[in-house]
Amino acid sequence: MTRTSLVFTGRLALEAVARNPLRAGLTSLGILFGVASVIAMLAIGRGAEQEILAQMRLLGSNNVIVTALVEPATHGNAASDSLAATPARSSPGLTVHDEESFLATVPDVDAASGEVVHTTTLFRESRRATGKLIGIDGDYFELMNLSLVGGRSFLPTDLADRRPVAIIGERARTRLFLGETPLGKQIRVGHVWLTVVGIVGQRSVSLQASAKLGVRDPSLDIYIPVSTMLLLVHNRSRPKPSAVSSALNPGACVAVGAAAATADSLATVHNTETADERRERLNYHQLDRVIVRARSAEAVPLVAELVQRQLARRHNGVVDFEVTVPELLLRQEQRSKNIFNIVLGAIASISLVVGGIGIMNIMLASVLERIREIGVRRAVGARRRDVLAQFLTEAVLISLAGGVAGIVLGVGTSLGIEHFARIQTSVSPWAVVLAFGVSITIGLAFGIMPAWRAAAQDPVTSLRYE
Fold first, then answer.
1. Could you tell me what percent of the chain has a pLDDT over 90?
2. Exposed end of the chain (fewer CB within 10 Å): N or C?
3. Closest to 324 (Cα-Cα) out of 112, 64, 116
4. Domain spans, the chain
């Protein structure tokens, strides 16, 4: 077909569609909803994938995380609380020695870092702020994919000599230093003065990631060497003062009646404490977490299994720890989301097929209504392929109109889902291109039969048709 005939055929198709805009609009509804479903599905799937990748970056690749578990008290009195702080089978809890044993005996372990979290009050001259003091090892920032925007990281000598040095987050800097350069200056924690040697860059952490993965906002924390933390600031493995005095002075253990007299007052104090305070009181673990990195993704399951076995042996069979593989959990979550996306895709495909059948039915009815018009066109010189092209173009136009409206609806639906349902979505350009392609393909596939039937009409018979 020449360019002139193509333009003429396209004009005829537009005029035919414009004569029945309501019918064309209703016919394209199936395509509209199908394309909108496809775009929304792809946007949800792509958003989920981006969220999974972001969470993996937060947790670090090939990491195995060992988390200390604090058993809650099973009874409501003070005596049971004190007993709950020490497991019946005498586990030492998660300690620095556990971390060292991972590096020394577990094969394919590349690096490891302990973590101690201590909520405290920080002082800088006349300013004070409540924050988290984090005791870490030298590999922690690399394991958790954190970068410094100023200063330096901890040196091996800082860890070995237990130096009082600190690396602060961006937001902690603004709260304590008010625009000053913090490097080389000091902050106070209790009676300990810490010299700031580095600044951690800011990294956004969603509330969902914070709750589900246990990832904190690093810009709010103060990091110090774990050896310094355990020596100068906070070490739960040290005997409690009350326990030491009782051991040195057996006479302090008075009669049961006297202990019962104080139980009510102790229980009253315990009832006023928060959940975090209660957890800290019962916590006997030296470390809160140990992050272990395997040399490769293939070695992660084996490393996790060996770490689990070693901890069970070192803790005398007491399960006061939890070993998790974040990457495997996230991959499993991604597979679940992919299944959900496949279901959405099947629903969208059904909508597209129904829309295509609707186009075919309307075009077949249109052929019956316009038999005389077809005969006139054939009588004045139109060829069969011209009639075929005209009706095929009409089907494609109806399908394309539904596709364009579906793209607008799909993008709007994706934005609405992200805004109201708090589910991350991302509409990619190739999804829009795919929607256009689907619209044209459906118009061609379901319009070919009506167009062929129109082109096959006998001109003489068509002119006699009433």
1. 25
2. C
3. 64
4. 3-55+332-464, 70-319
